[in-house]
DNA sequence: GCGACAG
DNA sequence: ATCTTGTCGC
Protein backbone atom coordinates (compact mmCIF):
# COMPACT_ATOMS: atom_id res chain seq x y z
CA UNK A 1 0.00 0.00 0.00
CA UNK A 2 1.24 3.40 -0.91
CA UNK A 3 2.25 5.45 2.07
CA UNK A 4 0.38 8.65 2.59
CA UNK A 5 1.89 12.06 3.06
CA UNK A 6 1.51 12.36 6.82
CA UNK A 7 2.77 14.82 9.41
CA UNK A 8 6.22 16.32 9.66
CA UNK A 9 9.01 13.78 9.18
CA UNK A 10 11.23 12.86 12.15
CA UNK A 11 14.33 14.93 12.74
CA UNK A 12 16.49 12.14 11.41
CA UNK A 13 14.87 12.37 7.98
CA UNK A 14 15.21 16.14 7.92
CA UNK A 15 18.92 15.76 8.62
CA UNK A 16 19.20 13.38 5.68
CA UNK A 17 17.40 15.85 3.49
CA UNK A 18 19.64 18.68 4.61
CA UNK A 19 22.70 16.62 3.82
CA UNK A 20 21.36 15.88 0.36
CA UNK A 21 20.62 19.54 -0.27
CA UNK A 22 24.13 20.50 0.83
CA UNK A 23 25.61 17.85 -1.41
CA UNK A 24 23.65 18.81 -4.53
CA UNK A 25 24.10 22.51 -3.87
CA UNK A 26 27.75 22.18 -4.81
CA UNK A 27 26.66 21.48 -8.37
CA UNK A 28 24.54 24.60 -8.85
CA UNK A 29 25.73 26.99 -11.55
CA UNK A 30 24.49 30.51 -10.86
CA UNK A 31 25.70 32.13 -14.06
CA UNK A 32 24.69 32.18 -17.71
CA UNK A 33 25.87 29.14 -19.60
CA UNK A 34 23.96 29.54 -22.87
CA UNK A 35 24.53 32.07 -25.65
CA UNK A 36 20.87 33.13 -25.85
CA UNK A 37 20.98 34.22 -22.21
CA UNK A 38 23.45 36.94 -23.09
CA UNK A 39 21.51 38.26 -26.07
CA UNK A 40 19.37 41.37 -25.42
CA UNK A 41 16.47 39.80 -27.36
CA UNK A 42 17.20 36.22 -26.27
CA UNK A 43 17.72 35.33 -29.90
CA UNK A 44 18.39 31.63 -30.13
CA UNK A 45 15.79 30.88 -27.47
CA UNK A 46 12.95 28.88 -29.01
CA UNK A 47 11.39 26.79 -26.26
CA UNK A 48 10.56 27.60 -22.65
CA UNK A 49 9.11 25.09 -20.20
CA UNK A 50 7.05 25.24 -17.05
CA UNK A 51 6.26 22.73 -14.34
CA UNK A 52 3.68 22.59 -11.60
CA UNK A 53 1.93 20.20 -9.25
CA UNK A 54 -1.75 20.60 -8.42
CA UNK A 55 -3.57 18.76 -5.66
CA UNK A 56 -6.80 16.88 -5.25
CA UNK A 57 -9.04 18.64 -2.76
CA UNK A 58 -9.69 16.03 -0.11
CA UNK A 59 -6.76 13.73 -0.72
CA UNK A 60 -3.34 14.88 0.44
CA UNK A 61 -1.78 11.91 -1.34
CA UNK A 62 -3.04 12.54 -4.88
CA UNK A 63 -1.77 15.21 -7.23
CA UNK A 64 -1.23 16.00 -10.88
CA UNK A 65 2.28 16.79 -12.04
CA UNK A 66 2.49 18.71 -15.28
CA UNK A 67 5.15 19.86 -17.72
CA UNK A 68 4.42 22.16 -20.60
CA UNK A 69 6.64 23.50 -23.36
CA UNK A 70 5.90 26.78 -25.14
CA UNK A 71 7.54 28.33 -28.15
CA UNK A 72 9.35 31.61 -27.67
CA UNK A 73 8.62 34.43 -28.10
CA UNK A 74 5.09 33.49 -29.17
CA UNK A 75 4.36 31.56 -25.97
CA UNK A 76 2.06 29.03 -27.60
CA UNK A 77 1.83 25.56 -26.05
CA UNK A 78 3.75 22.97 -28.05
CA UNK A 79 3.67 20.12 -25.57
CA UNK A 80 1.71 19.13 -22.49
CA UNK A 81 2.13 16.26 -20.08
CA UNK A 82 -0.20 15.81 -17.12
CA UNK A 83 0.10 12.77 -14.90
CA UNK A 84 -1.56 11.71 -11.67
CA UNK A 85 0.97 10.86 -8.99
CA UNK A 86 0.92 9.60 -5.42
CA UNK A 87 2.78 11.87 -3.04
CA UNK A 88 4.95 10.28 -0.40
CA UNK A 89 6.44 13.18 1.52
CA UNK A 90 4.52 15.90 3.36
CA UNK A 91 5.03 19.56 2.63
CA UNK A 92 7.66 21.06 4.88
CA UNK A 93 8.83 24.60 4.25
CA UNK A 94 12.40 24.39 3.02
CA UNK A 95 11.97 20.86 1.71
CA UNK A 96 9.43 21.30 -1.07
CA UNK A 97 11.61 19.41 -3.51
CA UNK A 98 11.42 16.22 -1.52
CA UNK A 99 7.68 16.27 -2.01
CA UNK A 100 7.52 17.19 -5.69
CA UNK A 101 10.78 17.07 -7.58
CA UNK A 102 10.93 13.37 -8.43
CA UNK A 103 7.68 13.67 -10.40
CA UNK A 104 9.02 16.66 -12.27
CA UNK A 105 12.20 14.81 -13.16
CA UNK A 106 10.02 11.94 -14.41
CA UNK A 107 8.13 14.34 -16.65
CA UNK A 108 11.35 15.67 -18.13
CA UNK A 109 12.53 12.12 -18.77
CA UNK A 110 9.27 11.22 -20.51
CA UNK A 111 9.71 14.25 -22.73
CA UNK A 112 13.25 13.17 -23.54
CA UNK A 113 11.96 9.77 -24.58
CA UNK A 114 8.89 10.87 -26.51
CA UNK A 115 9.80 14.22 -28.06
CA UNK A 116 13.45 15.10 -27.51
CA UNK A 117 13.23 17.90 -30.06
CA UNK A 118 10.79 19.67 -27.76
CA UNK A 119 13.12 19.71 -24.77
CA UNK A 120 12.89 23.26 -23.36
CA UNK A 121 16.01 25.41 -23.14
CA UNK A 122 14.93 26.73 -19.76
CA UNK A 123 12.39 25.68 -17.15
CA UNK A 124 10.27 27.94 -14.97
CA UNK A 125 9.68 26.35 -11.60
CA UNK A 126 6.87 27.22 -9.20
CA UNK A 127 9.01 27.83 -6.12
CA UNK A 128 12.35 29.31 -5.11
CA UNK A 129 15.86 28.71 -6.32
CA UNK A 130 18.76 29.98 -4.20
CA UNK A 131 16.32 32.18 -2.28
CA UNK A 132 16.02 29.45 0.31
CA UNK A 133 16.89 28.49 3.90
CA UNK A 134 20.00 26.67 2.73
CA UNK A 135 20.38 28.22 -0.70
CA UNK A 136 18.93 25.22 -2.49
CA UNK A 137 15.24 25.48 -3.32
CA UNK A 138 13.25 23.26 -5.64
CA UNK A 139 14.33 25.20 -8.76
CA UNK A 140 17.99 24.45 -7.97
CA UNK A 141 17.14 20.86 -7.13
CA UNK A 142 15.33 20.25 -10.42
CA UNK A 143 18.05 22.06 -12.33
CA UNK A 144 20.84 19.94 -10.92
CA UNK A 145 18.94 16.68 -11.42
CA UNK A 146 18.03 17.46 -15.05
CA UNK A 147 20.99 19.66 -15.98
CA UNK A 148 18.52 22.15 -17.47
CA UNK A 149 18.65 25.90 -16.88
CA UNK A 150 15.98 26.63 -14.27
CA UNK A 151 14.39 29.79 -12.92
CA UNK A 152 12.89 29.94 -9.44
CA UNK A 153 9.67 31.91 -9.28
CA UNK A 154 7.70 32.27 -6.05
CA UNK A 155 4.47 34.18 -5.55
CA UNK A 156 5.24 34.92 -1.92
CA UNK A 157 8.43 36.07 -0.22
CA UNK A 158 10.18 33.33 1.69
CA UNK A 159 11.48 35.13 4.75
CA UNK A 160 14.96 33.73 5.08
CA UNK A 161 18.38 35.17 5.83
CA UNK A 162 16.97 38.34 7.31
CA UNK A 163 14.51 39.04 4.50
CA UNK A 164 11.18 40.24 5.85
CA UNK A 165 7.89 41.10 4.27
CA UNK A 166 7.57 44.18 6.44
CA UNK A 167 6.61 47.81 5.93
CA UNK A 168 9.94 48.67 4.33
CA UNK A 169 9.57 45.82 1.89
CA UNK A 170 6.06 46.96 1.02
CA UNK A 171 7.37 50.46 0.42
CA UNK A 172 9.87 49.16 -2.08
CA UNK A 173 7.07 47.31 -3.84
CA UNK A 174 5.18 50.58 -4.13
CA UNK A 175 8.12 52.02 -6.03
CA UNK A 176 7.84 49.42 -8.78
CA UNK A 177 5.98 51.39 -11.38
CA UNK A 178 6.10 49.43 -14.62
CA UNK A 179 6.36 45.85 -15.72
CA UNK A 180 10.00 44.84 -15.58
CA UNK A 181 10.82 47.03 -12.61
CA UNK A 182 12.52 45.14 -9.81
CA UNK A 183 14.66 45.49 -6.72
CA UNK A 184 17.25 43.20 -5.16
CA UNK A 185 16.57 40.91 -2.22
CA UNK A 186 19.66 41.20 -0.11
CA UNK A 187 20.28 38.64 2.60
CA UNK A 188 21.99 39.56 5.86
CA UNK A 189 25.08 37.85 4.53
CA UNK A 190 25.33 40.63 1.96
CA UNK A 191 24.43 38.33 -0.89
CA UNK A 192 21.66 39.11 -3.33
CA UNK A 193 19.38 36.07 -3.14
CA UNK A 194 16.87 37.16 -5.74
CA UNK A 195 14.75 40.04 -7.02
CA UNK A 196 11.22 41.21 -6.47
CA UNK A 197 9.80 41.78 -9.94
CA UNK A 198 6.72 43.62 -11.14
CA UNK A 199 5.96 41.10 -13.84
CA UNK A 200 3.79 43.39 -15.95
CA UNK A 201 2.22 46.83 -15.99
CA UNK A 202 -1.10 45.79 -14.46
CA UNK A 203 0.23 43.72 -11.61
CA UNK A 204 0.79 45.17 -8.16
CA UNK A 205 1.91 42.07 -6.33
CA UNK A 206 5.47 41.17 -7.31
CA UNK A 207 7.03 37.86 -8.19
CA UNK A 208 10.12 36.67 -6.35
CA UNK A 209 12.65 35.50 -8.90
CA UNK A 210 15.81 33.63 -8.02
CA UNK A 211 18.44 31.58 -9.79
CA UNK A 212 17.70 27.90 -10.09
CA UNK A 213 20.52 26.61 -12.26
CA UNK A 214 22.61 27.60 -15.28
CA UNK A 215 21.33 31.16 -15.60
CA UNK A 216 22.24 34.49 -14.06
CA UNK A 217 19.79 36.37 -11.87
CA UNK A 218 19.76 39.24 -14.37
CA UNK A 219 18.83 37.00 -17.29
CA UNK A 220 16.30 35.14 -15.14
CA UNK A 221 14.50 38.35 -14.23
CA UNK A 222 14.57 39.71 -17.77
CA UNK A 223 13.25 36.45 -19.23
CA UNK A 224 10.57 36.14 -16.58
CA UNK A 225 9.27 39.57 -17.49
CA UNK A 226 9.45 38.64 -21.14
CA UNK A 227 7.26 35.55 -20.55
CA UNK A 228 4.50 37.29 -18.61
CA UNK A 229 1.19 37.88 -20.38
CA UNK A 230 -0.25 37.99 -16.88
CA UNK A 231 1.28 38.07 -13.41
CA UNK A 232 2.55 34.50 -13.51
CA UNK A 233 4.92 33.56 -16.35
CA UNK A 234 3.01 31.79 -19.10
CA UNK A 235 4.85 28.46 -18.84
CA UNK A 236 4.00 28.03 -15.16
CA UNK A 237 0.56 29.48 -15.65
CA UNK A 238 -0.23 26.97 -18.39
CA UNK A 239 1.18 24.10 -16.35
CA UNK A 240 -1.04 25.18 -13.47
CA UNK A 241 -4.18 25.61 -15.57
CA UNK A 242 -3.74 22.30 -17.33
CA UNK A 243 -2.91 20.26 -14.24
CA UNK A 244 -5.95 21.64 -12.43
CA UNK A 245 -8.10 20.97 -15.47
CA UNK A 246 -6.79 17.43 -15.61
CA UNK A 247 -7.77 16.87 -11.98
CA UNK A 248 -11.18 18.38 -12.54
CA UNK A 249 -11.80 16.09 -15.51
CA UNK A 250 -10.54 13.12 -13.52
CA UNK A 251 -12.61 13.88 -10.43
CA UNK A 252 -15.76 14.55 -12.44
CA UNK A 253 -18.55 12.27 -11.24
CA UNK A 254 -21.14 10.98 -13.64
CA UNK A 255 -24.16 11.65 -11.42
CA UNK A 256 -23.08 15.14 -10.40
CA UNK A 257 -21.85 17.09 -13.40
CA UNK A 258 -20.01 20.23 -12.39
CA UNK A 259 -22.06 23.26 -13.48
CA UNK A 260 -18.75 25.13 -13.89
CA UNK A 261 -17.47 22.74 -16.55
CA UNK A 262 -16.72 24.47 -19.84
CA UNK A 263 -14.95 27.15 -18.00
CA UNK A 264 -11.28 26.95 -18.75
CA UNK A 265 -10.93 28.41 -22.21
CA UNK A 266 -7.19 28.67 -21.67
CA UNK A 267 -6.41 25.00 -22.01
CA UNK A 268 -6.55 24.39 -25.73
CA UNK A 269 -4.92 21.78 -27.88
CA UNK A 270 -1.17 22.09 -28.35
CA UNK A 271 -0.02 23.49 -31.67
CA UNK A 272 1.49 21.24 -34.29
CA UNK A 273 5.07 20.11 -33.90
CA UNK A 274 7.78 22.70 -34.72
CA UNK A 275 10.63 21.69 -37.03
CA UNK A 276 9.24 19.08 -39.41
CA UNK A 277 11.27 16.31 -37.88
CA UNK A 278 8.79 13.53 -38.46
CA UNK A 279 10.88 10.40 -38.56
CA UNK A 280 14.47 9.36 -38.16
CA UNK A 281 15.98 5.89 -38.63
CA UNK A 282 16.10 4.39 -35.16
CA UNK A 283 19.47 3.82 -33.55
CA UNK A 284 21.04 7.00 -34.92
CA UNK A 285 21.50 8.91 -31.69
CA UNK A 286 22.65 12.24 -33.05
CA UNK A 287 21.23 14.88 -30.72
CA UNK A 288 20.92 12.91 -27.52
CA UNK A 289 22.16 9.93 -25.63
CA UNK A 290 19.10 8.01 -24.53
CA UNK A 291 17.35 5.63 -26.89
CA UNK A 292 14.16 6.66 -28.65
CA UNK A 293 13.65 9.50 -31.07
CA UNK A 294 16.68 11.40 -32.23
CA UNK A 295 16.92 15.14 -32.47
CA UNK A 296 19.23 16.10 -35.32
CA UNK A 297 20.66 19.58 -35.38
CA UNK A 298 20.51 19.91 -39.16
C1' DG B 1 1.47 32.66 23.62
C1' DC B 2 2.70 34.53 18.90
C1' DG B 3 4.29 34.62 14.39
C1' DA B 4 5.91 32.12 10.36
C1' DC B 5 4.84 28.84 6.89
C1' DA B 6 7.97 28.42 -1.30
C1' DG B 7 3.82 24.76 -2.67
C1' DA C 1 -1.67 23.87 -2.17
C1' DT C 2 -7.13 24.19 -1.44
C1' DC C 3 -11.70 26.34 0.32
C1' DT C 4 -14.75 30.18 -2.97
C1' DT C 5 -18.82 34.61 -6.30
C1' DG C 6 -19.37 38.20 -7.42
C1' DT C 7 -17.70 42.34 -8.70
C1' DC C 8 -15.27 46.47 -10.11
C1' DG C 9 -12.75 48.28 -14.01
C1' DC C 10 -10.83 48.84 -18.76
From TrEMBL:
It is found in: Cytoplasm. This is Endonuclease V isoform X1. The keyword Cytoplasm applies. GO terms for biological process: DNA repair. GO terms for molecular function: DNA binding; metal ion binding; RNA endonuclease activity producing 5'-phosphomonoesters, hydrolytic mechanism; single-stranded RNA binding. Keywords: Cytoplasm, Endonuclease, Hydrolase, Nuclease. It comes from the Eukaryota. InterPro entries: Endonuclease-V.
Amino acid sequence: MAREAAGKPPEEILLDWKREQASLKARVVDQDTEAWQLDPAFSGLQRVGGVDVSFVKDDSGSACASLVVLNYPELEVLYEDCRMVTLTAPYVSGFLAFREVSFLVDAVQRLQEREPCLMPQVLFVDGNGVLHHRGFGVACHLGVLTDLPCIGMAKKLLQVDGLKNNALHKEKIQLLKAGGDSFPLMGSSGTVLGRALRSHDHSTKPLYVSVGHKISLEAAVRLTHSCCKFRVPEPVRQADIRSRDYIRRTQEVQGAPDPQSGRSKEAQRPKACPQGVSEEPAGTSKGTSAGGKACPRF
